[in-house]
Amino acid sequence: PDIIDTDGADDYIVNYARDKSGIVGLDQSHTHFVFVDNGTSGQFGAEMGLRARLEAAVGNHVNAPVITIVVQGGPGTITTCHEAYRAGTPILTLKNSGQAADLLADAYDLWWKKDDPCSRETHKETPFQGLPVLHEISELVSKYIPATRSQEKRSLLEDITRKTIDIVRSKTSMQVFSLDGENSIAFDYAIFKCILQCTDKYTPLDQLKMCVRWHRADLARQEVLSRQNLTPEEYSEILRVSLVANDVDMARVAFDGGDLRLFKLLNLYSDATSYNLKSLFKHQSVHTIEKINEVVGQLIGDNYVDNLPHREANGELTARDLFIWAVISNNVDMAEYLWTKVRRPVECALMATKICNSLSEEAFMSSEQVEEQKAFGREYEQWALGVLQLCFDDNPKKAKDLMLSQPRLFFDRNSSGGRGRFTCVDLAVVA
């Protein structure tokens, strides 16, 4: 293709050439290209080593896992996989997709699953020419890579055979996924499992954070927590990440193993990305626990008296504090889960109603957002009514006692001394 700099700037127009013998045009579905020049002309593969190293480096830089997935392919695919193996990138081969992929899958099976002792890990360091399975894998190469069958291509046969053995003799470099339906797991599960088991650079905490990004609590339970023991501090960190990501299933995993006495509410509010929180804190990236206490108090009303800094410093945070955060953030699904963990569900549901109604009066709310907040408030109100109805159906007197009970941290400001009795009925009225 011709690459033309039209105005001397760094913007280029790429004209794709067609029907030039021996030259492959650039794929028009791509938007950007990296050109690698090793001094040769008309030869494939010059970019493979750099590509593998570049992919690994970019993955490390952005803290994202990198994996090579092999579907069909020819000799160049084996070289690409070998460079990925050298760069420490895990490889997932799709068996029954053909050619190079099937070569790697069958060679892996031959090396690791055959009963012959020659194919065991004891031969991992055996010199290439002395490998007992050398002939069998060489035959697999000839079977799946037609370009290696002629005598003139003997050197290519040996090169592909050597690279194939390098890849499959390391059990932690590659895994196989069959396309014939024999797998007991889904393809995305196989990708994640390959990333976890074919690299040792991720700690259990890193692995669980990946589960949060993938919204796969099942993987967290089966592939991480079943093999690793986390500290309460690590569980608390995963709970924070799950809350911010609004991943209810992962929050369940973390909540059951964590300890709220170790949780830092300041970190949760600082990392949150919801519009409500950003607006309430005037888009400040770092808050203080005192500021959080002030904002929450303003939303709930003058009758609410809390000392959040003292409670956090003394390890006295409860599920209610996380529930309030979820309500302010408009994470209704997360709020519903956390509501099941609070000790006073009627009180918390009424607090949520009050918070939503207060938010609907904020100047930063659009008309649509005002209606949304009011709708959320009505939903939380129904939660409270549902609990009271269940109590009334079971024992009307207990339902009455519940309504006349005094919510924790609520007082009647209009009474003498400003610390008068304030009941759930009063909370319902101000909500």
What are the defining features of this structure?
single chain, two-stranded antiparallel sheet, mainly alpha, 431 residues, 53% helix, elongated, three-stranded parallel β-sheet, 5% strand
Largest sheet: 3 strands, parallel
Strand content: under 5%
How much is the radius of gyration in Å? 31 Å
Helical element count? 20
The helix content, as a percent range, equals 40-55%
Biggest sheet: strand arrangement: 3-4-5
* General form: elongated
Which structural class do the helices and strands define?
Answer: mainly alpha
* N/C terminus separation: 68 Å
Summarize the structure.
This protein has about 425 residues and is mostly helical. It contains 20 helices and 5 strands.
Explain this structure.
The structure is a single chain. By secondary structure, the protein is mainly alpha-helical. The protein is built from 20 helices and five strands. α9 runs antiparallel to α10, α13 crosses α17 and α17 runs parallel beside α20. Strands 3-4-5 form a three-stranded parallel sheet, with helices on both faces. Strands 1-2 form a two-stranded antiparallel sheet. It is 53% helix and 5% strand.
